[in-house]
């Protein structure tokens, strides 16, 4: 696998920007990209292969191997070839090599994500991938959003309180954050996926990577007032350097015993309003959802999120 020094990382980021220049939505800034390719995520190993031709960096893949759970899978995240070097079989050679590395690492299932249209989808189909989960990206334009309307939409949920914070989670909240993160196991996913377990140390490791990984975040957590039980959460991440105007709405979950109170809408609106107050320069929020997740889609559409594009998670048994 490739050793990535600072110069190679900078060239790799430039090649990545060229490869995905025609893709709508945000791309990773250099600081975040370099952290991903040098540190990855807690509880995951990664292997990276960079290809150079005639002194130019022309292609790359990154494999992620989960180690906490789902140790039968690997993620190809990403594989790309610079546009001026496509059509010569390099992508196929990279995929073949990546698939062999997946087998060598004892994994039997490879996943990758692409838009449903375009060269990535055609490449996936041509190489035997099938659709695992159909997804969509939606965006909310913060410059034209109905902020007064959001205030009016805030549901009054009796018996629950919302806590808001920015940045990494404080130690005293880690166990509760892990408890509500487990609610994401109910989201649509591949039938072969095991449930993820979010113990305190796993959550702590993720939180400790937020700042050095070039990110900041806004979090909202709901608690039942009567006993303090954590009930649900939502998070928005953004580039720590605030360079591109984008924010990323990530996980939202409400635990089963607490559903039916409109906590999902309350959490997302409260977190968005908090972020808007502190980050008036932000322009857009982007979010991913499985197209079968009707409940979350209804919340997003009520808030004014509009469809940007559709994606697939593809699977390839090995």
From TrEMBL:
Nucleotide-binding listed as a keyword: no
Keywords (A to Z) from UniProt: Acyltransferase, Transferase
Xref: CDD domains: NAT_SF (cd04301)
InterPro entries xrefs: Acyl_CoA_acyltransferase (IPR016181), Bact_Acetyltransf (IPR050832), GNAT_dom (IPR000182)
Domain N-acetyltransferase: 1-171
Keyword ATP-binding in record: no
UniProt name for this protein: GNAT superfamily N-acetyltransferase
Source species: Nonomuraea roseoviolacea subsp. carminata
């Amino acid at each position: 696998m490739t050793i990535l020094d600072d110069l190679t990382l900078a060239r790799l980021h430039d090649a990545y920007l060229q490869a995905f220049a025609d893709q709508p939505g945000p791309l990773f800034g250099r600081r975040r990209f370099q952290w991903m390719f040098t540190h990855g995520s807690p509880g995951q190993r990664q292997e990276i292969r960079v290809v150079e031709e005639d002194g130019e960096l022309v292609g790359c893949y990154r494999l992620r191997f989960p180690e906490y759970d789902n140790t039968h899978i690997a993620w190809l995240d990403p594989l790309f070839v610079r546009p001026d070097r496509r059509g010569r079989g390099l992508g196929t050679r990279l995929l073949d090599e990546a698939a062999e590395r997946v087998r060598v690492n004892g994994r039997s299932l490879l996943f990758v994500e692409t838009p449903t249209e375009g060269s990535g989808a055609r490449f996936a189909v041509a190489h035997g991938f099938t659709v695992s989960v159909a997804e969509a990206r939606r965006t909310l334009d913060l410059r034209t959003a109905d902020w007064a309307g959001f205030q009016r939409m805030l549901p009054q949920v009796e018996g629950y309180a919302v806590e808001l914070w920015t940045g990494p989670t404080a130690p005293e909240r880690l166990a509760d954050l892990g408890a509500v993160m487990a609610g994401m196991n109910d989201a649509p996913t591949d039938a072969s996926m095991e449930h993820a377990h979010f113990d305190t140390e796993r959550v702590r490791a993720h939180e400790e990577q937020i700042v050095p990984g070039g990110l900041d975040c806004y979090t909202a957590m709901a608690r039942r007032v009567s006993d303090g039980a954590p009930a649900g959460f939502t998070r928005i991440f953004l580039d720590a350097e605030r360079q591109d105007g984008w924010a990323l709405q990530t996980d939202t979950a409400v635990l089963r015993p607490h559903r039916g109170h409109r906590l999902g809408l309350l959490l997302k609106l409260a977190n968005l309003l908090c972020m808007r107050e502190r980050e008036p320069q932000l322009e857009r929020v982007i979010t991913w959802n499985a197209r079968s997740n009707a409940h979350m889609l209804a919340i997003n559409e009520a808030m004014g999120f509009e469809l940007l594009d559709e994606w697939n998670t593809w699977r390839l048994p090995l």
